[in-house]
TrEMBL record:
The lineage of its organism: Eukaryota, Metazoa, Chordata, Craniata, Vertebrata. PANTHER family: DUMPY: SHORTER THAN WILD-TYPE (PTHR46107), THIOREDOXIN-RELATED TRANSMEMBRANE PROTEIN 4 (PTHR46107:SF1). The gene is Tmx4. Keywords: Disulfide bond, Electron transport, Endoplasmic reticulum, Membrane, Redox-active center, Signal, Transmembrane, Transmembrane helix, Transport. This is TMX4 protein. It is found in: Endoplasmic reticulum membrane.
Length: 146
């Protein structure tokens, strides 16, 4: 979820009720803010918000059903998750590919922080900051090419 997301805000009370019932369902319910954990959003390939995953014994399934409390509980109690095809191996959050994707998300956040530091703290003009990143990209490419 993300705090600014209207769909996430709409499901929030339902999700909290589902989390309170988690002990009776013998499950653990969590919530991750993708603005604070960009690596996880990359690792789970989150393209829409909110995104719900069911994980059991290292197998991940994306929940695409109704977002009512009854349907969420039924998904677990009636074991409806067994009929859902697991996330493909290469797209699985535990795959090497998705670990790399998480790294790219962390890198983008790091670049954004550097840009903010250059423009906000040091007062460098935005276009000069862009030029620094272009130059750094070229130099890294040349270095790696050698």
């Amino acid at each position: 979820y993300a705090p600014w997301c209207p769909a996430c805000q709409q499901i929030e009370l339902t999700w909290e009720s589902f989390a309170k019932e988690s002990e009776h369902l013998a499950i653990t319910v969590g919530k991750v803010d993708v603005t604070q954990e960009p690596g996880l959003s990359g690792r789970f390939f989150v393209t829409t918000l909110p995104t719900i995953y069911h994980a059991n014994d290292g197998v991940f399934r994306r929940y695409r059903g109704s977002r009512t409390l009854e349907d969420l509980q039924g998904y677990v109690l009636e074991r409806k998750w067994e009929a859902v095809e697991p996330v493909a191996g290469w797209k699985s959050p535990s795959s090497i590919m998705m670990h790399g994707m998480a790294g790219l998300f962390y890198l983008s956040g790091w670049i954004r922080q550097i840009h903010s530091y250059l423009t906000g703290t040091l007062g460098i003009h935005v276009w000069i900051s862009y030029a620094i990143f272009i130059l750094a990209t070229l130099l890294i490419g040349l270095f790696l090419g050698l």
